């Protein structure tokens, strides 16, 4: 996904195991494009897609593992193809 989504995680129990996931929901009724390092309105949104959550490939991991590095969702792929068979 561009731009990449990166997070720093804090406040977790170091020994507990966690699954991190990403759930993307529409903020409004517009389509956006990333242009000149910022998001701009690019028209009316498509009809809403079925809900899918993306589980981070390092899940589950301990709180200590999540907190010691930047968590990146760089392998996330988005599509508006409702017949996608790969779970994107």
TrEMBL record:
Gene Ontology CC entries for this record = chromatin; nucleus
One GO term in the molecular function aspect is: RNA polymerase II cis-regulatory region sequence-specific DNA binding
What InterPro entries does the record tag this protein with?
Answer: p53-like_TF_DNA-bd_sf, T-box_DNA-bd, T-box_sf, TF_T-box, TF_T-box_CS
Q: Which residues form the T-box domain?
A: 1-88
Q: What is this protein called?
A: T-box domain-containing protein
For the biological process aspect of GO, one term held by this record is: positive regulation of DNA-templated transcription
For the keyword Transcription regulation, the answer is yes
Top-level taxon of origin: Eukaryota
| Source species | Anopheles dirus
């Amino acid at each position: 996904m561009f731009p990449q989504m990166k997070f720093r995680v804090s406040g977790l129990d170091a020994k507990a195991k966690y699954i991190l996931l990403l759930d993307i929901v529409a903020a409004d009724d517009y389509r956006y494009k990333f242009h000149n390092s910022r998001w701009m309105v690019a028209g009316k949104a498509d009809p809403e897609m079925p809900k899918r959550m993306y589980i981070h490939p390092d899940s589950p991991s301990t709180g200590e593992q999540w907190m010691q590095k930047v968590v990146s969702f760089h392998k996330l792929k988005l599509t508006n193809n409702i017949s996608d068979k790969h779970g994107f």
